[in-house]
Design brief:
Blueprint: H1 4-11, H2 19-33, H3 42-56, H4 61-65, H5 68-79, E1 80-83, H6 85-90, E2 92-97, E3 103-108, E4 117-120, E5 123-129, E6 135-138, E7 141-148, H7 150-155, E8 157-163, E9 166-172, H8 174-179, E10 181-184, E11 200-206, H9 209-227
Parallel strand pairs: 1-5, 7-11
Antiparallel strand pairs: 2-3, 4-5, 6-7, 8-9, 10-11
Domain J: 6-60
Keywords: DNA-binding
InterPro entries: DnaJ_domain, HSP40/DnaJ_pept-bd, J_dom_sf
Length: 228
C-alpha cells in the first residue's frame, strides 16, 4: 500500500509540493509509465495514478486507522470508470456516483481506451473499456461476430453488415469465408492523442436461428448508437 512518502517518490514530487507542482509531476510520471508507450507498464501506471490521488487529498485520520486492504480497494474502485465499447467509440455522457455521495455528469470524448485518464472537475478517473458478448475491444480494434448464409461463407459474395459505425457493404472472398475473418481498415476506435486509428474485425460464422436473434439485437443496439 502507498503512503504519502512513497507516493511522492513515485511522482518525483518534493515534500510541500503545491497542487500545480503535483499536476506537473503526475503528467510527467504518467507519460513515462503509460502502457501504450515504449517502456511503459500497466502496474506502474496504476501506481502513478494512485500516488497522485493520494497526494491530492488531505491526510485523513480515518484512512490511517482503516485496514490497508479496505483503503486500497475503495480508492481503486472509486477511480475506475467502466464504459461500453460504443461509448469508447462515439463518446457520450455518463452519470457517476462517487464514494462521498456526489453525483457527477461526465462527458466522454470519442476514442477513449482502457488506461486513459479523464478529469471531471476535481476528480480524476481511469477509463476501463468493458467488452461484452456482442462487441469486444482489443487494444485499438473492435471485434464483432457476423453471421452469414452458408452459401456466402462457401462461395463468397457481397453482403450488408451492421457495424458500430453504420451499415457497410462488404465483399466476402472465398478465402475470407474459409478463414472466418474480415478486417475493415480504419473502422475501429478513432485516433485520439497518441492512440492510432483502430480497425474493425468481423468474425464470420454460419447463420442459424439463434444467430438471427442475436443479429437483430445487435442491429437495434447499433441503431440506437447511430441515432444518438
Amino acid at each position: 500500500m502507498l503512503d504519502r512518502k512513497r507516493a511522492r517518490a513515485v511522482l518525483g514530487a518534493a515534500p510541500g509540493a503545491t497542487p500545480a507542482d503535483l499536476r506537473r509531476a503526475f503528467r510527467e510520471a504518467a507519460k513515462g509509465a503509460h502502457p501504450d508507450r515504449p517502456g511503459g507498464d500497466a502496474e506502474r501506471f496504476r501506481e502513478v495514478v494512485e500516488a497522485y490521488r493520494l497526494l491530492s487529498e488531505p491526510p485523513s485520520t480515518e484512512s490511517i486507522i482503516q485496514p490497508p486492504a479496505t483503503v486500497r480497494k475503495s480508492a481503486l474502485d472509486d477511480r475506475i470508470l467502466p464504459i461500453t465499447p460504443l461509448l469508447a467509440l462515439n463518446g457520450g455522457v455518463v452519470l457517476r456516483e462517487t464514494a462521498d455521495g456526489r453525483s457527477l455528469k461526465i462527458t466522454l470524448p470519442g476514442g477513449l481506451r482502457s488506461g486513459d485518464l479523464l478529469r471531471a472537475g476535481a476528480d480524476m478517473f481511469e477509463i476501463a473499456v468493458r467488452g461484452d458478448a456482442q462487441i469486444m475491444v482489443r487494444g485499438h480494434d473492435l471485434w464483432i461476430t457476423t453471421p452469414l448464409h452458408p452459401h456466402v461463407l462457401a462461395q463468397g459474395g457481397r453482403v450488408a453488415v451492421d457495424t458500430p459505425l453504420g451499415r457497410r457493404v462488404v465483399w466476402i472472398t472465398k478465402k475470407a469465408g474459409e478463414r472466418g475473418l474480415v478486417r475493415l481498415a480504419g473502422q475501429g476506435l478513432p485516433a485520439r492523442g497518441d492512440h492510432p486509428q483502430g480497425h474493425l474485425f468481423l468474425r464470420l460464422t454460419e447463420q442459424t436461428r439463434a444467430t438471427d436473434t442475436a443479429t437483430r439485437t445487435l442491429r437495434r443496439r447499433f441503431a440506437a448508437a447511430w441515432a444518438a
